[in-house]
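## retry 2 of 3
previous attempt timed out at serialization; input unchanged, resubmitting
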Amino acid sequence: MHSINQLQTIINKAIADTKYTEQPAELYEPISYLMQLGGKRMRPVLVLVATELFDGDINKAIDAAIGIELFHNFTLMHDDIMDKAPLRRGKPTVHAKWNESAAILSGDVMFVEAYKLMIRVDDSILRKVLDIFSDTASGVCQGQQEDMNFEQRGDVSISEYIEMIRKKTAVLLAGSMQIGALIGGAGKEQSELLYTFGENLGLAFQLQDDILDVYGDPEKFGKQVGGDIISNKKTFMLIKALELAKGEIAEELNYWINLDSFDAEAKVSTVSLIYNKLKVKVLAETEMMRYAEKALTALDKINAPSSNKELLSAFAKQLLIREQ
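## retry succeeded, writing output
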């Protein structure tokens, strides 16, 4: 099997070599711009890893992998509009560089281009692949809407939150791996086990993201630490804190949540101390490891060469040991 770094290089070259219609430039230039901003390429890499897991030819999976990455970046482009985000990976977002209308329309074309790449898989698996991709795309949109709905609610439960991140984050990892498995020649049972692996890995990954948003090193995390606290984003950390807080701690937490005007550094510091008192970091880490273990249990059941599974296991552990 190729190493993860080798697969990232293959994906980056394929993205660089992908050409879009030149006119109108305002429609297609934003796509090239966003796709060239980089990133870990985790989802398309997982397509290729899953293909090779069953000794398949990754050349047959490149188009589907790029299709997955196009879809992922389409969601980022539209998320940035909804969040009014000025930057993406340190560069101006598409709607900031062009305008919102251009970003919306370019995003729509990215979705179409993703499907055009996805239908290049072998005819024998085309219907299955398109079913998975369509269900995945719907799930991501449902998760995004639920996440926005949570902003208006103060009674979100942990189970609701887990279901939301399953749709918004985990199903794309899972779908990527299941599509790769089918391209690699895996049967229904084996591809479903890989879907289970990817889904639980995605849940663990998002829970770790919640933890790092509060406790991460901003230089290593790559995002503003405390951003979720500042915006009152419903994460595992906040939901669990609201559930556990009593008396003066509950009053203080609700005071900061309901403040319209505040010093961001003071809010992050105070709410972080509340999290420490309630030990929500430990609870989040326990939940994260529970899903990580479920992912690795599913991987153990897959009928593939041990050496191939070891690469995937190492990749999963690498994702979940991001430095704090």
